[in-house]
Design a protein that fits this description.
With 106 residues, the chain is mainly α. It is built from 4 helices and no strands.
């Protein structure tokens, strides 16, 4: 379902688009430069949010290569299958005092 936009918001968005287009026609280089810098900033912040670093470093690539080597080495050593163990019931002490009293009373 299409949600309605408040008329004041629609008018403000229309003015913003008109202002952006007139500024783009008057000063295209500055607008494109600003847009490019904003995209670069967005990219760096997005990467920092995912990895904790702004740019990947050579050390991070070495670590991933070493991790891959360790994974392949672990696969080659052989993996023993898990043993099928049945569930084990652990006897608790809850309610045992009542059972002892009942058996002594009879």
């Amino acid at each position: 379902m299409l949600s309605r936009v408040h008329p004041i918001i629609a008018v403000l968005l229309l003015f913003a688009v008109i202002g952006f287009l007139t500024d783009l026609i008057a000063h295209p280089v500055s607008i494109l430069l600003t847009a490019g810098l904003l995209l670069l900033l967005f990219f760096l912040v997005n990467r920092y949010g995912k990895t904790g670093r702004f740019l990947l470093r050579h050390q991070a690539q070495k670590r991933t290569q070493q991790a891959k080597l360790f994974k392949t080495a672990a696969k080659k050593t052989g993996h023993t299958p898990r043993k099928e163990m049945p569930f084990r019931v652990i006897e608790g002490s809850k309610g045992k005092t009542k059972e002892k009293k009942e058996t002594k009373a009879t």
